[in-house]
Write a structure and sequence with these properties.
This protein has 272 residues and is an alpha/beta fold. It has eight helices and seven strands.
């Protein structure tokens, strides 16, 4: 009597199971440990003349990207950060623009393209923070928050997407805030505009994926001060470098299968 001896399975049946239509690759692209993951790319980071934006610029520069430093009005700060980036061996320029102003954004992107010829990475980091009760909030206050937190990511993304489509590569990261998830008194304008940008992120992730443009949302926790460190499981505020590392990862080919996601970088204060 003939017995069915086990034989090596075809790759299709081994990894796909019954009804599998095609074989899947067993390994993905790898990056040399000595390579710079975003070398040859150009990154625009809004609101990067100081603090967390500055850290993002410098980490991208360390990893090989040429960078566009943006500030709303402080040219000296922006140029100082650009100088720090150049010291790391990349090209850098500083451009002033109010991200809530469509004309200024378009001019900034045009100047960046004139210098570098492309923009591959956009980090929508610029943010508006203000405090006013809903009963006392003026329409101008409401619109000021929306201009930076909501219109800004839209204006910047719309301006850079054509070059990303042309080059078949793009990484767009929009930055929110923890208060938008648990609420904060007198911040209704800030919370609403930040959550609106998150909705845009999810829609764009679906729309742009076919062009190899990946769109994600990052929500920092406490990086300056916190009234109760007991609420943070790791027991401390975050380091700017820790947030910059997250941006740099999402900006690279290492994150080639991640889009439409929200990343909370908050030491465990809020867990989703």
């Amino acid at each position: 009597m003939e017995t069915n001896k086990p034989t090596s399975l075809s790759r299709r049946s081994a990894i796909g199971g019954m009804g599998a239509a095609m074989a899947l690759p067993l390994v993905g692209p790898t990056i040399s440990p000595t390579a710079k993951p975003v070398e040859g790319k150009v990154a625009l980071v809004t609101g990067s003349g100081r603090n967390l934006g500055r850290a993002a610029v410098l980490e991208l520069a360390r990893r090989g990207a040429d960078v566009v430093v943006n500030a709303r009005s402080n040219r000296e700060e922006a140029e100082a950060v650009a100088g720090e980036a150049e010291a790391l061996g990349v090209r850098a320029i500083a451009l002033l623009a109010d991200v809530g102003n469509e004309q200024q954004v378009n001019q900034m992107v045009a100047e960046a393209l004139g210098t570098f010829g492309r923009i591959d990475i956009l980090i929508n980091n610029a943010g508006f923070r203000g405090s006013s009760s809903i009963a006392e909030m003026s329409t101008d206050e409401w619109r000021a928050a929306a201009a930076v937190n909501y219109d800004g990511p839209f204006f910047c993304t719309r301006a850079v997407v054509p070059t990303m489509i042309s080059n078949g590569y793009g990484r767009i990261i929009t930055v929110s805030g923890l208060n938008s998830f648990h609420g904060r008194p007198n911040w209704s304008h800030v919370c609403a505009s930040k959550m609106g940008a998150m909705g845009m992120t999810k829609a764009l992730a679906v729309e742009l994926a076919r062009y190899n443009i990946l769109v994600n949302h990052v929500v920092p926790g406490a990086y300056v001060a916190h009234p109760d460190l007991n609420r943070i499981p790791v027991g401390r505020i975050g380091l700017a470098q820790e947030l910059a590392n997250t941006y740099a990862f999402l900006a690279s080919e290492d994150a080639s299968y991640i889009t439409g996601q929200t990343f909370h970088v908050n030491g465990g204060e809020i867990r989703y």
